[in-house]
Amino acid sequence: MESNPPSVLIVIPAYREERTIGQVVSAIRETFPYDVLVVNDGSPDRTSDVAREAGATVLDLPCNLGIGGAVQTGFLYARDRGYDIVVRIDGDGQHEIGDIPKVLEPLLAGRADAVIGSRFLGETEYRGSIPRIFGIRHFRGLVNLFTGYSVTDPTSGFFAINRRLIDFYADNYPSDYPEVDSYILMHRLGARALEVPVRMYDRTEGKSSITAFRAVYYMVKVTLSFLINRIRRIG
After folding, report:
1. CA end-to-end span of the chain, whole Å?
2. Torsion angle (degrees, nearest 10) of CA 17, 135, 105, 230
């Protein structure tokens, strides 16, 4: 008797992405048989309408919760509807949707609970700003020191998780700057995490808001949050 294949949900948090979200959703739906959920994080533009027109299911948050709240909304949706795997990507065209199978394969093979796409493994054309690269290196050292994971891209927003972590993150996902904090929570849960090489591109619209001052502020804030999550009680 054949068992049903795992159900996969692609979660895309989106804020002011009306120029790119349609292309991203359409590309996924044309390439893969997976359901697509766009969490519209209080966008004042046509992000929601464009995503629906491209074929995504859309959840409209009543206000801007930030990336952590938007992604957690996706996890809640996935948990309540019984999805086995969530793949999280951005809606601005930075992530290569053709690499989705790379983050899925270790989960489907049962070799990991979380698979993170790294822009620094293998051949890469990624060129970030100096503040961004400095911050990534800082968090790489922090995560590797305190978790024992071997991480090259701790701020990557391109990842996949299995049902165990979907259930956990639905109640416990970090609300502010979640990518780095999620590693300490995975470590405390005893989750298996690994990285795979993926392609990431410069954003197709807008520009990064990360200045030197913001980078320092971000590093201090996230470092404190990371250390607090080492000891706080989790459900």
Report:
1. 37
2. -110
pLDDT at 207 over 50: no
Ordered DSSP codes for 172-196: H--SSSHHHHHHHHHHHHT--EEEE
Q: What are phi and psi of 84, to 5 degrees?
A: -90, -30
Identify the residue whose tokens are 């990064």: 208
Token representation of residue 59: 């959840």
Q: Which two tokens stand for residue 83?
A: 């999805």
Model pLDDT, residue 205: 52
Placement of tokens 């998780």 in the chain: 161
What domains are there in the chain, each with its CATH number? Answer: 8-231 (3.90.550.10)
Reported residue count of the chain is 235
Residue pLDDT, tens place only, 120-146: 997 666 666 667 777 888 889 889 988
Residue 235 to residue 233: CA distance in whole angstroms: 7
Q: Residue range 40-65: average pLDDT?
A: 97
DSSP letter at 109 equals T
Give the confidence band of 101 by pLDDT, cuts at 50, 70, 90. very high
Listed in sequence order, the residues at least 6 apart from 78 whose beta carbon sits closer than 8 Å to its beta carbon are 9, 11, 37, 86, 166, 170
The DSSP code for 121 is S
Residue 209, SS3 per DSSP: coil
Predicted model pTM = 0.89
CA distance 8 to 83: 6
> pLDDT by residue (tens digit) across 9-39?
999 999 999 999 999 999 999 999 999 999 9
